[in-house]
Amino acid sequence: MINVLVADDELPAVEELAYLLGKDDRIGVIHRAISGTEALRALNTATVDVVFLDIHMPAVSGLDVARAIARSSKPPVVVFVTADEDCALEAFELAAVDYLLKPVRAERLSRTVGRISELLRDGGGTAPEMITVDQGGTTRMIRRDDVTYVQAQGDYARLHTADASYLIRVPLADLEQQWAEAGFIRTHRSYLVALKHVQSMKLTADKPSVSVAGAGLPISRRHLPTVREKLEATRIRPQA
Predict the structure, then answer these.
(1) pLDDT tens across 10-59, in order?
(2) 213: three-class secondary structure by DSSP
(3) Are 216 and 207 in contact (CB under 8 A)?
(4) Which residue from 196, 173, 197, 186 is spatially nearest to 219, judged by alpha carbons?
(5) Distance (Å, rounded) from C-alpha 168 to C-alpha 207?
(6) 12: helix, coil or strand?
(7) 16-24, long-range: CB within 8 Å, 24+ apart, which pairs?
(8) What's the pLDDT tens digit per position in 87-113?
(9) CA-to-CA distance for 37 and 51, rounded, in angstroms?
(10) N or C: the chain end with fewer CB closer than 10 Å?
(11) Quick check: 148 and 213 in contact, CB under 8 A?
């Protein structure tokens, strides 16, 4: 069970997030704080695995709390919860595991809890690889492991996630090289897919395709042998 602390200077926001977390079977004790000072006090007296921090709290902000957490010998996991994205870059520089925008959606929160569960099971793990993207004049930080597939658009590439898509000025060929070790594979001149998000593949000679996050994407004849090889490498075999 994951013990959490929810800190926000607005009590309704604390109670709403606590309610959503309480519906998740993976969550144990839920502590509450309505200021950064209360959050620091709770962290000194309670056993907490994860802190859900509002950024904009008076006097002692969520970022201040995160800085204090970073100095501890066994810091809990930090997730920022906020109504804006102005502090996204600084948040991830403080090794935040996730950055949730208000109002928090139940399915988005569930994905965050799943990631936290994996991190704790692996002994803490490492901070996620983040990507800076521009959207409508706003700079956003997204997790690379949220990217399900990438689509070529000239000298640009469009990153697709479960929630949105983002255009970045990087050719698909460059991403293919940079992200190969992260489990991304080229399936077509126009597509790079994350193997972890693949739901099914049709590898027959007649119109081979791959299903990624509900999208049906083609596999070209040129890339079919490599895709077959990658799939074979992940196959579970009986012991001899």
Answers:
(1) 999 999 999 999 999 999 999 999 999 999 999 999 999 999 999 999 99
(2) coil
(3) no
(4) 186
(5) 29
(6) helix
(7) 16/103, 16/104, 17/52, 17/81, 17/104, 17/109, 20/104, 20/106, 20/109, 21/52, 21/109, 21/113, 23/106, 24/109, 24/110, 24/113
(8) 666 666 777 888 888 999 999 999 999
(9) 14
(10) C
(11) yes
In angstroms, what CA-CA distances link 207 with 65, 113, 199, 230? 54, 38, 17, 19
The residue ranges of DSSP E strands in 37-163, in sequence order, are 50-54, 77-82, 98-101, 130-135, 138-143, 149-153, 156-160
Rounded distance between C-alpha atoms, residue 210 and residue 218, angstroms: 6
Q: Which residue has the higher pLDDT, 204 or 2?
A: 2
What dihedral do alpha carbons 148, 152, 153, 158 form, nearest 10°?
Answer: 20
Joined together, the tokens standing for residue 159 give 């990153």
Kindly report the pTM of this predicted structure. Answer: 0.65
Residues constituting the chain = 240
Can you tell me which residue has the tokens 């600084």?
90
